[in-house]
């Protein structure tokens, strides 16, 4: 009988943790594991494609609460549903991704057989959860068999601020070639031809710092008239960002192209990757861009980019939220094709350094500790 492996995550919508869950689940079902992916949400927001051999379970319990009592009742319903799932599915290993799923697994799985592994997908202090969830995380993590962090600073924080017994650092994998799923959109059909392109990718939210990036590009644009800025992703800040682009008169130079399911083709159509995030965990888009042979410039936020970019080897790091420094580093690469090509040669090493085989192997060593 193959090992039974269950993933628990809020949803399979477009996002870093969701991509990681999908990549690992698809990898392990190919290795002969019996795999299920359970989400707290419904399937309506699913973006990533699971192998058809994977059982897809939607608890459909992620609903907004109108008041504290409703929130408490919703959480109790979720705990009961997760415990019922663990009893029925009987996994040898359950992997939860992100704080709420970690807490539900820790509490609902109490006393049940099977290994329970939680994983934080962001540096915890950068995204405060509120008093109740902070307390739940602190106490509940002690009931997990292992906890995975993306970086050493995050692991140290979890050891200091929770009761987690065993914290291991494992980065995010890159599935190469990058999987393709709908919506497939052709860059050559949507972008002006014969241009050089700076690309950023991720949800249009404050975390990603696109307001800072557009500000920086406005300073670069006059000196680099053949370059455009491409931002791939969707989110609640589309309106404000479009207004900023219009206010700066950059409608013909900055393109917010929305979500795409063939992100690899978009990286390949561009010349340089930029990450303007205010904070990160272990950014998948940065790894993907390097794997596609793009040199990168990134804010050196507290965790993430410095674990991936090797300065002066495959890219450049600049002080967090320092627009002037970002402009200077982008200028250095946009003006120097030979330097971009030198960085690109080393960038593709990410394919091997963070391969699914290698990262999955690190997870599998945790499975053997049960």
Write the layout of secondary structure elements.
Layout: E1 4-9, H1 16-30, E2 34-39, E3 55-58, H2 68-89, E4 93-96, H3 99-108, E5 115-119, H4 131-140, E6 146-149, H5 152-161, E7 167-169, H6 187-190, E8 196-201, H7 210-220, E9 227-232, H8 238-247, E10 254-258, H9 263-268, E11 272-275, H10 284-291, E12 296-299, H11 305-308, E13 315-318, H12 323-334, H13 337-347, H14 350-353, H15 356-367
Parallel strand pairs: 1-2, 1-4, 2-3, 4-5, 5-6, 6-7, 8-9, 8-11, 9-10, 11-12, 12-13
Estimated share of beta-strand residues: 15-25%
Rounded to the nearest angstrom, the radius of gyration is 21 Å
Shape: globular
User: From the helix content, strand content and strand pairing, which structural class follows?
Assistant: alpha/beta
Task: Quote the distance from N terminus to C terminus.
Answer: 17 Å
Return residue spans where pLDDT drops below 50 for at least 5 consecutive residues. none
Biggest beta sheet attributes: 7 strands, parallel
Total E-strand runs: 13
Number of helices: 15
The SSE order reads EHEEHEHEHEHEHEHEHEHEHEHEHHHH
Percent of residues in helices comes to: 40-55%
């Amino acid at each position: 009988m193959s090992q039974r492996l269950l993933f628990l995550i809020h949803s399979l919508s477009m996002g870093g943790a969701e991509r990681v869950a999908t990549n690992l689940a698809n990898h392990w079902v190919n290795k002969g594991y019996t795999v299920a992916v359970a989400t707290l949400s419904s399937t309506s927001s699913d973006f990533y494609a699971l192998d058809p051999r994977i059982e897809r379970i939607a608890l459909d319990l992620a609903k907004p609460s109108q008041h504290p009592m409703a929130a408490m009742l919703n959480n109790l319903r979720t705990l009961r549903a997760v415990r019922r799932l663990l009893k029925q599915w009987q996994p040898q290993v359950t992997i939860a991704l992100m704080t709420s799923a970690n807490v539900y697994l820790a509490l609902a799985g109490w006393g049940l057989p099977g290994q329970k592994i939680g994983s934080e997908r962001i540096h915890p202090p950068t995204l405060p959860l509120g008093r109740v969830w902070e307390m739940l995380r602190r106490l509940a993590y002690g009931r997990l068999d292992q906890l995975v962090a993306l970086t050493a600073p995050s692991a140290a924080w979890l050891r200091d601020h929770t009761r987690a017994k065993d914290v291991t650092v494992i980065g995010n994998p890159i599935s190469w070639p990058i999987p393709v799923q709908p919506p497939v959109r052709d860059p050559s059909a949507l972008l002006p031809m014969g241009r050089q392109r700076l690309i950023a990718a991720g949800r249009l939210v404050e975390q990603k710092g696109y307001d800072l990036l557009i500000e920086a590009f406005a300073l670069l644009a006059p000196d680099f008239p053949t370059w455009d800025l491409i931002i791939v992703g969707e989110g609640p800040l589309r309106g404000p960002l479009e207004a900023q682009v219009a206010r700066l008169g950059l409608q013909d130079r900055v393109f917010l192209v929305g979500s795409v399911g063939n992100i690899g083709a978009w990286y390949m159509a561009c010349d340089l990757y930029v990450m303007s995030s205010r904070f990160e965990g272990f950014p998948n888009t940065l790894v993907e861009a390097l794997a596609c042979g793009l040199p990168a410039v990134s804010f050196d936020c507290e965790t993430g980019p410095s674990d991936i970019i090797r300065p002066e080897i495959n890219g450049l790091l600049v002080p967090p939220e320092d627009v002037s420094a970002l402009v200077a580093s982008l200028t250095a690469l946009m003006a120097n094709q030979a330097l971009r090509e030198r960085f690109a040669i080393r960038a593709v090493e990410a394919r091997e350094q963070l391969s699914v085989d290698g990262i999955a192997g690190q997870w599998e060593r945790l499975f053997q500790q049960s």
